[in-house]
C-alpha cells in the first residue's frame, strides 16, 4: 500500500500503478471538502466517470450518485455445487443452451416477470417511468463484462458464477439523480464542475430519495442475479445431474452505505469495490479466461474494510476493440468453452490486469479460500 499526499487528505493506494486519469480522479476525491480521513484506491483501480472504478470514498453527510456509478448494485453470485467432475461435452451443452435461453445484451423477457419487490416500488417519477421495462429485464444478463460461468474450484467442486446488476433500471436511476445533484451543485458550488462528483446532502429530501432509490436498485440487482442463477442452474442440473447447492455467496460492488469507520458515522461509497469485513466471504472474479477467487475479508480499517471487485481493466473498451482481433481473443480463451463475442473483444482476458498480481497487492485486505478456474463462459 502506497500513501500519496496530493490533496486535502491522503490517498492510500493498493494499485501497482495508477493511470493518469485515475490518479487525477483520486486527487479530486481527496480535495472534496466533506471527504473523510483518506481515499482508498483498490488494487484493480482504473479510470471511471468522476471517480476511479476500484475507489472507496467516505463522506460526512454527503452522498454522490456518480461515486456509486451507473450500474447500481452490480455484483457477483458464486455457488458451490455437489458436482466434482463435468465433461467438456456437458459444458458445451450448458453454455449453448444458456446462450439461447437467457436474454443477454439488450435482450429482455417477452413477458413481464414476477418479483415480490415490485409491490414496494418507490412512487417517484423515474420508477413509474421505468416500471414496465424493469419487469421484463429482471432475470436477464446484460452486456459488457456481465457473464454466467462454470468454474473448477481448488476445493474439488464445480462452481457456478453469475455477474450482473440492476440493468437499465439502475442506469436510469443513476442518471436521473446525478442530474438533480448537478443542478443543486450549480447553486451551491460545493464541488468543482470538472470533478463530475456533484453531491446530495444525505439528510436533504433529494438525498434521502436517492438513497432509498439506490437501495431499491440493490434489491432489484440481487433479485436479478437470483433469477439468472435459477435459469442457469436449471440448465446445469439437466446436463450435470446436480442435486444440491452446497454454498451460495452474493455480493455487490457499486453502492453507498451508512457505516462506522474510525469511530464516526460516514456515507461509504464503494465504486467497483466490495466489502471485506473480518471473516466476511467475498468473490473476486478475474476475466473470462483467468482464475477468480473466493476470499475471506481481513477487516483492514485502512481500506475502510474493502477490497477489489475484480482484476481491473488495463485497456479501455473502445481501444480494446481497435487493438484486439477475434483470432487474438480466441487464442486467449483456448481450452475454455465460451459464447458471446458478437464482434466485441473488449472482454478478452488481455484487457485485464494480472489477477495474481492484484491478489498479491491486497493480501492485507483478504485471504484467498478457493481458486476458481473457468471451464465455460457465456458473455453478455
Kindly describe this structure.
By secondary structure, the chain is of the alpha+beta class. It has one domain (2-64, 72-379): tRNA-splicing ligase RtcB (Alpha-Beta Complex). Helix content is 32%, strand content 27%. It contains 9 helices and 18 strands. The chain has helices at 20-30, 65-68, 88-101, 125-137, 167-188, 205-240, 317-323, 326-332, 355-361, and strands spanning 2-4, 11-13, 39-46, 53-59, 62-63, 75-81, 147-153, 158-164, 200-201, 245-252, 254-261, 264-271, 273-275, 281-284, 292-297, 306-308, 337-339, 366-379. It is globular. It starts with a strand and ends with a strand. The mean pLDDT is 95.
Helicity range: 25-40%
| Number of DSSP helical runs | 9
Low-confidence stretches: none
Q: Which fold name fills CATH's third level, the topology?
A: tRNA-splicing ligase RtcB
User: How do the SSEs run, as a string of H and E?
Assistant: EEHEEEHEHHEEHEHEEEEEEEHHEHE
Rg over CA atoms: 20 Å
Determine the mean pLDDT.
95
Shape: globular
CATH first level: Alpha Beta
Features:
globular; single chain; six-stranded mixed beta sheet; eight-stranded mixed beta sheet; 32% helix; alpha+beta; 380 residues; tRNA-splicing ligase RtcB
Brief rundown of the structure:
Helices cover 32% and strands 27% of the residues. It has 380 residues and is an alpha+beta fold.
Sequence-ordered SSE layout with sheet pairings:
Elements (H helix, E strand, L loop, with lengths): L1 E3 L6 E3 L6 H11 L8 E8 L6 E7 L2 E2 L1 H4 L6 E7 L6 H14 L23 H13 L9 E7 L4 E7 L2 H22 L11 E2 L3 H36 L4 E8 L1 E8 L2 E8 L1 E3 L5 E4 L7 E6 L8 E3 L8 H7 L2 H7 L4 E3 L15 H7 L4 E14 L1
Parallel strand pairs: 2-3, 17-18
Antiparallel strand pairs: 1-2, 3-4, 4-12, 5-9, 6-8, 6-10, 7-8, 7-18, 11-12, 13-16, 14-15, 15-18
Helix pairs in contact: 3-6, 4-5, 5-6
